[in-house]
Amino acid sequence: MVGIPLLPAVGLGTAPLGGLYKNVSPIDAAAAVAEAVGIGYRYFDTAPLYGYGAAERALGRGLEGCDAAVAVSTKVGRLVDEGAPRPPGDMFAGDSGAATWDFSADGVHRSLDASLQRLGRSYVDIAFIHDPDNHARQALDEAYPALERLRDEGVIGAIGVGMNEPGLPTRFVTDTDIDAVLIAGRYTLLDRSAEQALFSAAMARGVHVIAAGAYNSGILAAVETNPHFNYEAAPAEVVARVQRLQAVCNGFGLPLPAAAVQFVVRHRAVGTVLLGARNGVEAAENWAHAHTSLPEELWADLDEIINDADDVD
C-alpha cells in the first residue's frame, strides 16, 4: 500500500477551469495551472466531471514540463462522453460533454484510464470516489475494492471519497481503509455540519481531511457581486449573516475571504484546504488569503456571529 502523500495546507481546485458557470479557454486554463505552480501551489485536484474532461486536460497541459514535485488527485464514479450533447441547464459551460454514473469495478478502471490519458500521467496520488450519495452500496462493494487493488498495484497512491454531505463519508472513514476524505462546503463560516461526526471519525482513524468550498459557492468571497450559497442564489438570511461577518472583518481592515479560508485551516482535523480559481489572478488572491496574518481578536468577534447562527438553526 502506497498511502496518502504528504499534502500541503493549500491546494488548487480545478472545477472553475472546466468552465463552471462560465467558459474558460483551454489555453487560459492551462496557463492558470502553470501560474499556480509559480505562485507555490503543489497540490491540484480535478475530476472527469469538471467540464467533462476539460479540467483534466487543462491540468495536464499546465503541469507539462513542471519541475516541481506536485501531487494530483482525480475522481471516479462518472464516465464521461466528451462528444455527447450537453444536458440542458448544466453548470458547466459548453455545448458538448455529458456523464453517466458508474461505480462498478469496470467503471472505476475505465474512468481512471481515461483520466490518466487526459492528464498525461501514469499515476495519480489520490483517486476519490465522487458523489456516491445515491449509489452507496455499489460504491462500497465495487468501487472501493477496485481502488484498493489499484492502490496495492501502485497505480494510485491513495483512496479517498469526495462529497458535499458528511454522512456517507463518515461511513467510508469508519468502514473502509480510505486514506483521505474531501468534503465540500460543510466546514465554513456558514456551515459546520462536517465538524462533529466526520472530523471526529477522521481524526480517530488518521484519515487526511481536505476541505473544499470555503467560500460556499462564492458568497464568502464576494457577497456584493456573487451572492451564491451552495450553488444557488443565497437566501436573504444568509446574505445578512455574511454582511455581519464582513463588517467584523472590515473593522480589522481585513478581507472576509481571508477569514473564510483560514477558519477552515485552523481546525485541527483539516489537513488541506482546496481553493478553486478560474485564472492566475484568482489563484494568487486565494494564496494570499491563506497566508494573510489574522489576529486572534478577529476570531472571537466572528465566533459570536457563528454561534448566534447555531442558536437560530
User: Are there runs of 5+ residues with pLDDT below 50, and where?
Assistant: none
Class per helix and strand makeup: alpha/beta
Order of helices and strands: EHEHEEEHEHEHEHEEEHHEHH
Biggest sheet layout:
8 strands, parallel, barrel
Radius of gyration: 19 Å
Major sheet strand order: 1-2-3-6-7-8-9-12
DSSP strand tally: 12
Which percent range describes the beta-strand content?
15-25%
What is the count of DSSP helices, taking H or I runs of 4+ residues? 10
Shape: globular
How would you state the average pLDDT, rounded?
94
Distance between the termini: 43 Å
Helix content: 40-55%
Provide structural commentary:
With 313 residues, the protein is of the alpha/beta class. 42% of the residues lie in helices and 20% in strands. It is built from 10 helices and 12 strands. The protein has helices spanning 26-39, 54-63, 105-119, 136-153, 167-175, 197-205, 236-251, 256-265, 280-291, 296-312; strands at residues 10-13, 43-45, 71-76, 78-85, 96-101, 124-130, 156-163, 180-184, 208-212, 228-229, 232-233, 270-276. An 8-stranded parallel β-barrel has the order 1-2-3-6-7-8-9-12, surrounded by 6 helices. Helix 1 (26-39) links the parallel strand 1 (10-13) and strand 2. Helix 1 packs across helix 2. It is globular. The chain starts with 9 loop residues before the first strand and ends with a helix.
Features:
eight-stranded parallel barrel; 20% strand; 10 helices; two-stranded antiparallel sheet; 42% helix; 313 residues; alpha/beta
